[in-house]
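DM from R.C. (forwarded with permission)

"hey, sorry to bug you on a friday — could you get me a structure for this? deadline for the figure draft is monday and I only need the backbone to look sensible"
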Amino acid sequence: MRIVLVGPPGAGKGTQAAYLAKNLKVPHISTGDLFRANISQGTTLGKLAKSYMDAGNLVPDEVTIAMAQERMAQPDAVNGFLLDGFPRNVSQAKALDEALAQDDVKLDAVLDLEVPEDEVVTRIAGRRVCRNDSAHVFHVSYSPPKKEGVCDICGGELYQRDDDSEETVRTRLEVYHTQTEPIIDHYRAQGLVVTISALGKVTEVTERAMAALEQGRAA
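My reply, with the result:
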């Protein structure tokens, strides 16, 4: 299957993408991974992307699109893929449509993870990270430390990252609503959108997503 994963920040896209890609036996292709791989390998596209990033500018759509096209053309993605973080806007969605049409293939579904805005704020703004090891992550409501402000694992100080503050989260949500959410209407016009609730346990959401994708494929 060829799938695009869409949802607001805090919807759990990265987590679900990993589980779904494993279940569907297709590669998980994320924008972040594309950038990191191209930059670390020193590819022409990677150097170009880095020049924009070093200057504090956004990487142009055409660079992101070229990276995605190259990745989708690799052998492991010939029979399917799961795109996470791309396309990010309608312009990229149209470019993806054109790129797939050139290879005479189409998307099978666009999986829309739906989460209420207040829940997104709660999920992200409640995160606390250990200063000693950023892999040690807690949540004030869902997985609080035994002692407030102290990491259970190493005893380090827990803090809220700047990009996890409520103000920043709401700004990110506004960007999502303005730039990314319109691609849902773009794909809905093609009959590709499958919307599910992303509330509940990770496994429950994965099962819900798999069932919805199977139903959509059968339809």
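R.C.: lifesaver. The beta strands are 2-6, 28-30, 81-84, 109-114, 127-130, 137-139, 158-159, 193-197.
me: no worries. The chain has a mean pLDDT of 93.
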